[in-house]
Amino acid sequence: MRQRVVGFWVGSYRHFEWKTANKTTSRRERGPFILFNNPSAVSATLTFLTVAMSSMLELAVAALQSLGAVAFVVAAGWVYALYGYFPLSMQRDLARLVVQLLAPCLLLVSIAHTVSWESFHLWWPIPVLFCALTLASFIFAVVLSFLFRIPRSRSHFIASAAMMSNTNSLPVALMHSLARDPGSRAVLNPKASDADEVARRGIAFVLFFSLFSNILRWTICYQLLAKCPGDEEHAAVQEHEGDAQVTDLIAKQEEVFPGDAVIAEIPDADPQVHATRLRRRSQIFSISADVDSFAATGSAHTASPTERTPLILPNPVPGPQLIDSPTESVPDIPPRSRLRALGTRLYDLMNAPLYAALLALIIGLIPPVKSLFFGPDHGNTGPLEEIVTDPLYSLGEASVPIIILTLGGQLGSMGKVEHVDTAAEGKDVALVILVKMILTPAVGLLMILGMKPFVPLVQDPTFAMAMLLLAACPTALNLMNISQAHRNHETVTARLLFWSYLLSVPILTAWVVADLIILERYWTV
């Protein structure tokens, strides 16, 4: 219907353009008045606008329904946590269950079902887009920090927060919800009759993207959030309301945030073991002496942990020692010891979801093994599909509502943290939200549109929507865990996370509606 209307409208316009070229009309009939002097052209134009507005309204309703389903569960977790029915101990237990069991099941089934030798080499745009979006966020953060004359410590915080995107809880839930909605599914994959097929493919793209994000946040972002030796430390502390001095506030915040509920590393039972592993993980691309010194002396705190004990107990380093440490000579280490240390740090970087992703690649890239779990084709079931694959997918699906509920619980717990806001914190929060949720998604949309004619994978609407969702999501909750590890930027992090996820409802709604309209206009035939 829409194509016939557009064709008639274009044909009518060309007919009047020919008449104008031959000067058979008056001056008033030419130019902008030409359409209004012909009833058929006016009728075709109005019909075209009506169909376009109706299509946009349908996509907007589909996006609002998908986001509304996610927002309802988030609100439930927020209210229950705010009134004390969803305590922190329960949030941690659920987060640990998701990390150790449910998320690996979802990751294993989604990637193994989607990947193959024919398609795996087509997935190269995922790391390329990840690097491009990360670089764009970093450049925006640096430029805005320079324009607003923000000190180095705070500019590092803005850059790190802008690069650390929520690549797990929100995009997984949104992709799952969009696949369930008939209107959105018609745009993402018009030929798919099964919502699970669309959801698995979209979630596989999201989780594969999250593997690179997980490495980034525990390496580069971890180093950026450390205190800057050359910066005016006292001014930065005052501007961020004395992060290292208000001990009661810090203790409250450290009890609040279990971390991003899919790839986050749940703290070990022993805070010292967790602190040591955390720093080894961050040192994969760093040999900074001041960080290494902590890993060697992390056992200074030997007191028994209590309910008020922080999750991460860094060994305080005096100011002069911190400033002088980068210039100290590092002793020579035998190559074998360096390889052993690197292997230990890589081991600390691994977790259950990463192991599941590697196993999924092995299963998906070996056709005989894949046929055991998923069958040789869509019409036949594999020997292990009903016994292993279906239960694993059921467990993985259970992770989606638990992730959203835990996210709401974390936001509700943030609401209990009281601190005095400052103008510096407000500026930092505003800049991060501007970069992370406005500028970077715009760059991602332009990149997707530019790559579409040349990259086969980008021509898949499901892939395009997954990448656009990842570009528009707010900052990862792991930012609080890393801030706690450094005893730096903790109060501004709490404020940033609260406002980011509060504002993500209208901002993400606008982006999802715009993305669906663009996909429906340029991707579907």
TrEMBL record:
Main location: membrane
InterPro entries assigned: Mem_transp_PIN-like
Membrane-spanning parts: 33-53, 59-82, 94-116, 122-148, 346-366, 429-451, 463-484, 496-519
First and last residue of the signal peptide: none
Source organism superkingdom: Eukaryota
Any one Gene Ontology cellular component term annotated for this protein: membrane
Protein keywords: Membrane, Transmembrane, Transmembrane helix
GO biological process: transmembrane transport
Lipid bilayer topology: Multi-pass membrane protein
Compartmental location: Membrane
Protein name per its UniProtKB record: Auxin efflux carrier
Organism: Spizellomyces punctatus (strain DAOM BR117)
